[in-house]
């Protein structure tokens, strides 16, 4: 192998169908993995390490049970636990997060995930939200994130009894890969001691942003970011955002 090939890399994608069963829960998901072999070297097997990551999670199915009954019988609890598990799986292995497996001795720190910039977001307001309350109006609040880690998810204040809430709150997020990551905004109805009910959500691809230039727009809320067949009007949210990239 020629020396000038040593810092190139290749990747392939394979389908995955994984099922993990236990007495408490069944977790099954399908998706496509990305494999990267880097760096290429003269020594067998011709690459120093393997990076793998879930490029796209297509489906996640969960069955949650506890001793003595099905946990789904408890209103709101099943959905909350499923969201937590879904977020944990997504952030532990979803691209750009990657697992690095050294094959040959060496320093592969350059393959690890690193910050490349920041995203500044102003949660201004929402309008025409679906009312989730039988008496009165919804009490909306927003959850925003680029990566669904508990310490990197931002939560707004709650605006009581309002379908056109105004927040005017600022948030900042770390960006690791502007070409594939996205901002997620989820609007919930605060139900007090009960589990909050999702009103709608929106997703903005960071690759659609011009670094250093504010993008101000209204984003349509949908029921599910994975299913694009939702035609019901759930409202809109306005989030001006500004992307800063290092060495840009």
TrEMBL record:
SUPFAM superfamilies: C2 domain (Calcium/lipid-binding domain, CaLB)
PROSITE patterns in the record: C2
Gene3D superfamilies noted in UniProt: C2 domain
Superkingdom per UniProt: Eukaryota
Residues of the C2 domain: 98-219
Recorded GO MF terms: lipid binding
InterPro entries found in the cross-reference section: C2_dom (IPR000008), C2_domain_sf (IPR035892), Synaptotagmin_plant (IPR045050)
Coiled coil: none
Name recorded for this polypeptide: Synaptotagmin-5
Source organism of this protein record: Vitis vinifera (Grape)
